[in-house]
């Protein structure tokens, strides 16, 4: 009798464990399917690649038009168009800033790319659009640039050429979105100052004489992970006329008889050193601005 009672107790406990495990399974499944913020969701690309292609074609058209207006009456070169085409899908470049304004919205069994009025934080949706853009254009960027340069097409013709003839991105309808698709993160707009700061850093990236310049993420800014944190503010040593020093160097008559190539090389090196110095000062000012901002916010919380 006692043995039978123990057996029944064991069965009851086993059933309870099974019920608990099964009740937790949907939650565990939901956690497992939660998208990793900051990484592209490759599974979403088939649903948006045609729309991405249309938008990148539109960006190519308008950015080339804008560049032409800037340098008018000079005509835009094929190289300049290729440069735009190579950068339009690279979030590290200004030509791809359009991606930051796009929100992926689920509407029924479709995903729609909805353009926002301002740039947003770049998380998984942003990276997904970038990845889709890169997959669509791929190695066809030079072909698209050549078509733009030689044919000077209207926008509709360019979209048809890139998305139907060249890449086939819009040759068929996108498949329906699965009903159990995990929604993406909400669109979070950047502040104007944050957007301006990122544009400044992008414009300075790769500057001659300042190879150490780099983009900082929002997390880096929060943790004050800046390059050259020990740099002191040496505004007193600023030399606002540093570009003119290049001409001065070229005109100098040194005791040593440099030939013209050596003079130019020396001038370029000197100008590069000055540029790097100014870039370091800008980085230092950004660090100080951010530190004071954090200190102010902590004080207000207290």
Automatic annotation (TrEMBL):
Acidic residues bias spans: 229-241
Keywords carried by this UniProt record: Disulfide bond
Region (Disordered): 171-190, 226-249
UniProt domain Saposin B-type: residue ranges: 46-174
Top-level taxonomic group: Eukaryota
InterPro entries assigned: SaposinB_dom
Protein name, per record: Saposin B-type domain-containing protein
